[in-house]
């Protein structure tokens, strides 16, 4: 068997040096790259009875040329070629535009296959493709590939045929026989063949079934292997807290835990007590009580002689978390420190000395925590909040300040189950899917732009009750490209309207960090009644007195972002409101507005968001955790993803995975793709 990853694409018949350069633009450099570069859709050229074809549908018919093709020129270099074809019991007019060369190739009496758009009223086909004679089964479904540069679809298909003819027998089966039989899957070679050259929709279906499962299984094997090594690596610590002492702390909290909080506390504390290394993701909607859960874990660590660290993305959020933890932990003799870039000079030196001596039990801070001079005496628990805001390297540096400390990631961005399995597949996932009792639902309304004056009136009513409001805009200044209201305009409108009666503040991403912090402090201290801002307030701002969230041009935001913004209000005891101002032009835009008014459940919102936007955009382009699958689709194939995850767990924890013949091909494939090396390196 030849290794197709080592054979250059120039070994394929017809591919020279220039063509190889063009193929490299498509990331095709080897025979394996070419054979596993699958079409993303298929043109359907199957023959159909014209009586069943709807107006303006694409159709393919066979028949006999009845009339001499006539060619008419019009305009500059434009032409129309027309003739009639007898197809079944019907005579059809065929028009080809700007393909005059066809005239010399067709004669009366020729058998032809014609494809194009059907005009039912005129019994006419505007044709895009023809073939003399009848088409074969292999030509009925034609793959359409993603293209770049000079390579055309026909050319790529031709090279793929040549590669498969020469190297098809070298496509190695990597799935064990028992898995093929369990799910009735076709072989890897057949799947590759049918994805490129399907003879029927059934071929395509079976090939897709096979490759979707394979892609998900290979990815999940990588995730589970990493998870196993993370859990079992030497040096994992056991935080052996006193159960009764921890129970006493939980009972002393100012409010009872929800059932969901109790469940995740048990999961987290179970990990901490074990000798395995904790690597857990804690998901919880805005306001679900993640900070309290974090305090319980930090208390357990501190009372067992370990230090804890909580890293958050912004200074304001760090201060809020530190204040909350001081309120919760101080009376239990657990010391909490705060370290941000604002802590300087003598104060900073004293803080670092106390930390190194072990006199600070819990340190809260921004990325300042990972600076070189920050030394812990005995770091046992690392918590990062909104972890996707930190790079992998930043999170790793914090972990390395201890000897394999337990790690807990927290996020208020509800992540659909399919994405959690995929992007965070190497982690255990805990979900708080219940809000504390007594919390009022935020009332959400969608209004049109012409109602702005009424919305401002509503804001004024809340301000007169002593409350505060946010107004969020998508842009800072005017843009010629997008006709959307901007933050500066809205700020000026409010100031002119209120004329000193109420105070408005302005916040956006171009301000210096110190200025942003000052504005947020002023809003927090109620020196500002209404904060006009871009989306910089999206995560981690907690002003319980704010009861109004107005989002201007709301259809310009994604659903997850709208939900995060809405979560900035509803944090106090008073009724809160979210007003979406939008005139969406697209169906997707209207759908977003409707979803927001129908549900406050972040997990429902996130599932719908995934359906509308697709997995690639959910975290933004920079999110590296989500792989590019060639055939599989996480949204539509989520059931297969869950099956593949369970199978991967079974395989990785199977006694014979690393040494039996049954798994030899799968091991070789994973090894060739560097999976084992990656895990060792990490």
Automatic annotation (TrEMBL):
Pfam families: DEAD, Helicase_C, RecG_dom3_C, RecG_wedge. Residues 271-432 form the Helicase ATP-binding domain. InterPro entries: ATP-dep_DNA_helicase_RecG (IPR004609), DEAD/DEAH_box_helicase_dom (IPR011545), Helicase_ATP-bd (IPR014001), Helicase_C-like (IPR001650), NA-bd_OB-fold (IPR012340), P-loop_NTPase (IPR027417), RecG/Mfd (IPR047112), RecG_dom3_C (IPR045562). SUPFAM superfamilies: Nucleic acid-binding proteins, P-loop containing nucleoside triphosphate hydrolases. It catalyses: ATP + H2O = ADP + phosphate + H(+); Couples ATP hydrolysis with the unwinding of duplex DNA by translocating in the 3'-5' direction. Its EC number is 5.6.2.4. Keywords: ATP-binding, DNA damage, DNA recombination, DNA repair, DNA-binding, Helicase, Hydrolase, Isomerase, Nucleotide-binding. GO terms for molecular function: 3'-5' DNA helicase activity; ATP binding; ATP hydrolysis activity; DNA binding. One of its GO terms (biological process) is DNA recombination. The keyword Transmembrane does not apply. The keyword ATP-binding applies. Residues 451-611 form the Helicase C-terminal domain. Belongs to the helicase family. RecG subfamily. Plays a critical role in recombination and DNA repair. Helps process Holliday junction intermediates to mature products by catalyzing branch migration. Has replication fork regression activity, unwinds stalled or blocked replication forks to make a HJ that can be resolved. Has a DNA unwinding activity characteristic of a DNA helicase with 3'-5' polarity. This is ATP-dependent DNA helicase RecG. It comes from Listeria riparia FSL S10-1204.
């Amino acid at each position: 068997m030849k290794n197709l990853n080592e054979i250059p694409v120039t070994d394929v018949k017809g591919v020279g040096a220039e063509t190889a350069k063009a193929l490299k633009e498509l990331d095709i450099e080897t025979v394996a790259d070419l054979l596993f570069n699958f079409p993303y859709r298929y043109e359907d050229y199957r023959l159909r009875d014209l009586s069943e074809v709807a107006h303006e549908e694409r159709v393919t018919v066979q028949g006999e040329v009845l009339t001499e093709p006539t060619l008419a020129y019009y305009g500059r270099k434009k032409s129309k070629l027309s003739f009639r074809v007898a197809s079944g019991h019907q005579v059809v007019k065929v028009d080809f535009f700007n393909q005059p060369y066809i005239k010399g190739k067709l004669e009366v009496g020729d058998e032809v296959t014609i494809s194009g758009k059907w005009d039912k009223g005129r019994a006419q086909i505007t044709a895009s493709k023809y073939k003399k004679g009848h088409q074969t089964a292999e030509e009925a479904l034609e793959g359409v590939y993603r293209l770049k540069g000079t390579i055309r679809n026909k050319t790529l298909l031709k090279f793929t045929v040549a590669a498969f003819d020469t190297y098809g027998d070298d496509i190695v089966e990597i799935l064990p026989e028992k898995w093929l039989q369990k799910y009735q899957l076709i072989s890897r070679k057949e799947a590759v063949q049918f994805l490129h050259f399907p003879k029927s929709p059934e071929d395509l279906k079976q090939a897709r079934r096979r490759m979707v499962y394979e892609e998900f299984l290979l990815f999940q094997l990588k995730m589970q292997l990493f998870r196993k090594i993370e859990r079992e690596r030497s040096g994992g610590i056991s935080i052996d807290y006193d159960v009764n002492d921890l129970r006493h702390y939980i009972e002393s909290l100012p409010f009872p835990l929800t059932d969901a909080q109790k469940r995740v506390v048990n999961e987290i504390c179970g990990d901490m007590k074990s000798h395995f290394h904790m690597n857990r993701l804690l998901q919880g909607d805005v306001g679900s009580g993640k900070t309290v859960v974090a305090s319980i874990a930090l208390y357990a660590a501190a009372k067992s002689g370990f230090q804890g660290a909580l890293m958050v993305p912004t200074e304001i959020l760090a201060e809020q978390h530190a204040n909350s933890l001081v309120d919760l932990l101080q009376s239990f003799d657990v010391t909490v420190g705060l370290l941000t870039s604002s802590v300087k000079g003598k104060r900073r030196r004293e803080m670092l000395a106390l930390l190194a001596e072990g006199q600070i039990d819990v340190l809260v801070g921004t990325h300042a925590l990972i600076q070189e001079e920050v030394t812990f005496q005995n770091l046992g628990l690392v918590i990062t909040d909104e972890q996707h805001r930190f790079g992998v390297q930043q999170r790793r540096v914090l972990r390395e300040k201890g000897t394999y400390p337990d790690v807990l990631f927290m996020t208020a961005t509800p992540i659909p189950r399919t994405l959690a399995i995929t992007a965070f597949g190497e982690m255990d996932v805990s979900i708080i899917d219940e809000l504390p009792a007594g919390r009022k639902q935020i009332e959400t309304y969608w209004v049109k732009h012409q109602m702005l004056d009424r919305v401002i009136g509503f804001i004024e009513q809340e301000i007169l009750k002593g409350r505060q409001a946010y107004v969020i805009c998508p842009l800072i200044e005017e843009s010629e490209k997008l006709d959307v209201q901007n933050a500066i305009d809205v700020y000026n409108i409010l100031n002119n309207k209120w004329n000193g009666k109420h105070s408005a503040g302005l916040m956006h991403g171009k301000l210096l960090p110190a200025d942003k912090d000052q504005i947020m402090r002023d809003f927090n201290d109620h020196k500002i009644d209404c904060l006009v801002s871009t989306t910089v307030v999206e995560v981690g701002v907690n002003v319980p007195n704010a009861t109004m969230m107005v989002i201007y041009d709301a259809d310009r935001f994604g659903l997850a972002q709208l939900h995060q913004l809405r979560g900035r209000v509803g944090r106090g005891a008073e009724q809160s409101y979210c007003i979406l101002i939008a005139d969406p032009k697209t169906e997707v835009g209207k759908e977003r507005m409707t979803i927001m008014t129908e549900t406050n459940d972040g997990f429902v919102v996130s599932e719908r968001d995934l359906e509308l936007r697709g997995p690639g955009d959910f975290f933004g382009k920079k999110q590296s955790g989500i792989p590019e699958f060639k055939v599989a689709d996480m949204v539509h194939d989520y059931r297969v993803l869950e099956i593949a995850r369970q199978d991967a767990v079974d395989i990785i924890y199977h006694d014979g995975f690393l040494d039996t013949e049954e798994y030899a091909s799968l091991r070789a494939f994973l090894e060739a793709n560097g999976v084992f090396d990656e895990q060792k390196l990490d």
